[in-house]
């Protein structure tokens, strides 16, 4: 059946309007959903990065905290949101990867229900000990553990630092006993007091205490030494080949968000991550800026897939199971 000139004109006009609407993104404020309470690493990164993105997008970026279930509630909310770019998840390891190994029902699949936009940052994990522990290097720590298993605290069962500890033990042969705490900050008083002798935690948490001599950071699981503490070696330097681990934060949209919407968000993310404001604050906090390839949807997707594989193997070896 032949289409009338009016029908064709209406259809073409509709397409033009649709394209114009997408090109105009964003027309209002953008929400960053942080799946944890205010004050944590993800919240800090969200507010810094969002501040930088506001100028590029020309609209405010509003941070909204939706804590609960180890981050799964906030992540699930974003996964089920309208895929229009106005509701985004800025989340860490837990809701993106770890939770599926420790929660019987998460409610979403990261790579199926969310669209990675870019990785923002990584805080390397660090092996830190009480000064009385007779181990100043990774080799000495492993050797000491083989004479008597060392209790090592982490920020909780199934946390990113727990998975790192299990990977570290499997890689080095260290004999460790996992001691879960509520958070990385919660374990520090016991580590300072000596009732906890060692911990695997985010590098930024014990850094000030390390400088004061109250704890000793043996090594960090990063590619290179941190400019804020160049005296601390990496685990790779210390003989743990290829060992990298950290608490990361990334930006994701609901699956199905159009590429035309993802593109300006990702561009604004990169501009923000390269800004003096963000770089200066990250440096002060001991947060590593990621390489440009990880700031892309493809790079961040590959990063998540790799972390899933590493955690799946660690869970299998260590017997980590859903609660």
TrEMBL record:
Keywords on record: Signal
Coiled coil: none
CDD domains assigned to the protein according to its UniProt record, in alphabetical order: PBP2_Bug_TTT
InterPro entries (UniProt xref): BUG, Bug_dom1
Keyword hit for Signal: yes
Family annotation (Pfam families): TctC
Signal peptide: 1-23
Transmembrane as UniProt keyword: no
Xref: PANTHER family: BLR1237 PROTEIN, TRICARBOXYLATE-BINDING PROTEIN
Annotated family: Belongs to the UPF0065 (bug) family.
Protein name in UniProt: Tripartite tricarboxylate transporter substrate binding protein
Organism field: Rhodoplanes tepidamans (Rhodoplanes cryptolactis)
